[in-house]
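Incident log, support desk, overnight shift.

02:14 A customer reports that sequence design results differ from what the structure should imply. Their input is reproduced verbatim below. On-call engineer (initials T.W.) acknowledged and began investigating.
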């Protein structure tokens, strides 16, 4: 008389195969979550810098009297007067894009999650080159 069911060896093999499949799929899932977090941080930094550039472009569009501090051929500080008569200075400091109005205290234009690695401008064309990275990638 034969008994119906699985042997201990068959059950061990089935559990082993299932464990391997779960380990492989969970590793892929964890990697996908990590990639998603990095992508969200990059999009956030890009959005923040885009907003800062838009704010700068709005002020620059109506400005006049542009001067550029130019030690070594790279414009490190851009100063001009807005249509409203305020004097604005843009510069980078500690991996942040800064703005000072009428010589007052400088305020960051970019949040802490975006680090400005390169900043340069030309006083007559005013193209701005920014490379932003999430601060977690520093």
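02:41 Re-run completed on a clean worker. Output:
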């Amino acid at each position: 008389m034969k008994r119906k069911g699985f042997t201990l060896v068959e059950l061990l093999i089935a559990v082993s195969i299932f464990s391997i499949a779960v380990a492989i799929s969970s590793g892929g899932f964890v990697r996908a979550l990590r990639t998603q977090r990095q992508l969200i941080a990059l999009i956030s930094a890009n959005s923040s810098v885009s907003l800062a550039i838009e704010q700068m472009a709005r002020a620059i569009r109506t400005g006049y009297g542009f001067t550029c501090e130019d030690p070594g051929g790279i414009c490190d500080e851009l100063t001009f007067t807005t249509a409203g008569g305020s004097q604005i200075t843009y510069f980078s400091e500690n991996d942040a894009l800064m703005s000072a109005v009428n010589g007052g205290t400088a305020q960051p234009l970019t949040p802490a999650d975006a680090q400005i690695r390169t900043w340069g401008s030309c006083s007559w064309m005013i193209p701005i080159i920014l490379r932003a990275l999430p601060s977690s990638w520093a």
